[in-house]
Amino acid sequence: MNKVVLDASHFDGKARQWDSNPVFIERAARIAAAIRAEVPLSRAMAALDYGCGSGLLSFPLKDELGRITCKDTSAGMLDVLREKIAAQNVTNITVRLTDLTADPLPDERYDLVYSSMTLHHIPDTAHILAVFHHLLNPGGHLCIADLDREDGSFHGPEVDVHHGFDRDALAELARSAGFREVRFRTVFEIVKQREDGERAYPVFLMTAAHG
Ligand SMILES: C[S@@+](CC[C@H](N)C(=O)[O-])C[C@H]1O[C@@H](n2cnc3c(N)ncnc32)[C@H](O)[C@@H]1O
Q: Which domains are assigned to the chain?
């Protein structure tokens, strides 16, 4: 079977409806609360939201952080985010169309890197974790929210993504990238209707410290 890649044009097509999904809003609120519980946030911190989409995770955190850079490969998502920033007169969020898996790495460094539901779209997990480590200042924090290991039914068997992540294996990859104090907590459950009934897909938050 030829697998389908969910590229930037896929998310461009979803961007205008993204914020009308109450599950996405609730998921972002729960992830933001878990980040708050795990990391001492402050207005002195520079943060990167990688795979930010329409900014659903950065909006609830914006008043507790200094500068936030939101990066994504979908121009459509970033258009929606820019409109929200303008409508609410937000002054501390910068938007960048970027693919850290392919573009030259920037000079900037962050105190916090967070990413929600994006890791499963990036083929080389070890590489992107190394990039996040590179972009963090010493003492900085990484927060990744994504699906626990699942059987492929979340996106469907034809879609070319990671089928969630085994926590132990992901922790090992994070440690290999230079992180320490790797911790997990379950932050949310996405419930989908399947032919055989309801199915719940847990979402974890992995937190780690720059080693
Ligand atoms: C499932 S959406 C999550 C969006 C947002 N973080 C949220 O929680 O609502 C995944 C996002 O990752 C972005 N993405 C996929 N591959 C990417 C990559 N290599 N670099 C940056 N963003 C990427 C997509 O464009 C999309 O906006």
A: 8-210 (3.40.50.150)
Identify the residue whose tokens are 């969630």: 164
Query: Average pLDDT of each block of 10 consecutive residues along the chain (211 residues)?
Result: 87 98 98 98 98 98 98 98 98 98 96 98 98 98 98 90 97 98 98 89 98 81
pTM for this one? 0.97
Residue type present at position 137: N
3-state secondary structure string across 95-159 = EEECCCCCCCCCCCCEEEEEEECCHHHCCCHHHHHHHHHHHEEEEEEEEEEEEECCCCCCCCCCE
Please tell me whether residue 24 adopts helix, strand or coil conformation: helix
Ligand 1 site, CB within 6 A: 8, 11, 24, 28, 50-53, 56-57, 72-74, 77, 99, 101, 116-118, 121-122
